[in-house]
Amino acid sequence: MANVLLIEDEVSIRAALHRALDERGHAVASVRAAMDGLARATKERPDLVVLDLGLPDMDGVEMLRMLRAVSSVPVIVATAREQESEIVRVLDAGADDYLVKPFSGAQLDARIRAVLRRGGREDEESACVVGGLRVDPRSREVELDGERLELAPREFELLHYLAVRVGTVVSKRELLTEVWQIPYGGADKTVDVHLAWLRRKLNETAANPRYLHVVRGVGVKVTAPES
Ligand code: CA
């Protein structure tokens, strides 16, 4: 997947994230201090950096500014602070994305993949396979158990967005922003209607889901059927 440099001083968090990313197929190097991270990031040229803000030798945002002077490597900031001013400061300093602690390895992995896709560093064009479902972004073709499905463009984009994040619950808000390009407002109903259409084409129902699973009040995810 990706070469990830993890800069985090807290031993337990560093170990947990290191393991979680490792399990998801990333090659992870981890360091505990900003200067060390800066040196490694410039020398080893990772695909992506995960940066904690509270580091022993330097504020992570200061380090990010120094890194940005010499490198455009994608950076995801891990912050304990949720205030808007803090998030703005992080993004202004050149972060590509951020996560507010605590977060899971699965969440971090999903953000890593999203950031790398945006940067075109990952092989985003390869087909995505979940169980008997195959979603090919190049040909924009979807197959279910070897049979071609005819999807409308938005249905395809919705399914592809979920399929590349297999197992991750995506909020309807995120879908409206990323799939429909409606950053504010918009109605959950829009997503629900398209999910219903998609369901019909995937030969499943809300009562008997196979690939599309709605987690009430949270969002929707794609997973492979159990049998
Ligand atoms: Ca810290």
Question: Key terms for this structure?
Answer:
single chain; about 230 residues; alpha/beta; Rossmann fold; Arc Repressor Mutant, subunit A; 2 domains; 5-stranded parallel sheet; 4-stranded antiparallel sheet; 8 helices; 11 strands; binds calcium ion
CATH structural architecture of the largest domain: 3-Layer(aba) Sandwich
Give the overall pLDDT as a whole number: 90
Runs in which pLDDT lies below 50 for 5 or more consecutive residues are none
Top CATH class of the largest domain: Alpha Beta
- When the domains are counted, the total is 2
Strand order of the largest sheet: 2-1-3-4-5
Bound small molecules, which ones?
A: calcium ion
CATH H level of the largest domain: which superfamily?
A: Response regulator
The 3D shape can be described as: elongated
C-alpha Rg, in Å?
Answer: 19 Å
Main β sheet profile? 5 strands, parallel
Briefly note the CATH topology name of the largest domain.
Rossmann fold
Number of helices: 8
Tell me what the structure shows:
A hairpin with a 2-residue loop joins β8 (141-144) and β9 (147-149). The longest helix is centred in the middle third of the chain and has 15 residues, at 105-119. The mean pLDDT is 90. Helices cover 40% and strands 20% of the residues. It has eight helices and eleven strands. It has two domains: 3-122, Response regulator (Rossmann fold, 3-Layer(aba) Sandwich); 128-222, Winged helix-like DNA-binding domain superfamily/Winged helix DNA-binding domain (Arc Repressor Mutant, subunit A), CATH 1.10.10.10. The protein is α/β, with parallel strands linked by helices and 227 residues long. α2 packs parallel to α3. A five-stranded parallel beta sheet has the order 2-1-3-4-5, sandwiched between helices. The chain has a four-stranded antiparallel beta sheet with strand order 6-7-8-9, covered by helices on one side. Residues 9-10, 52, 54-55 line the site of calcium ion.
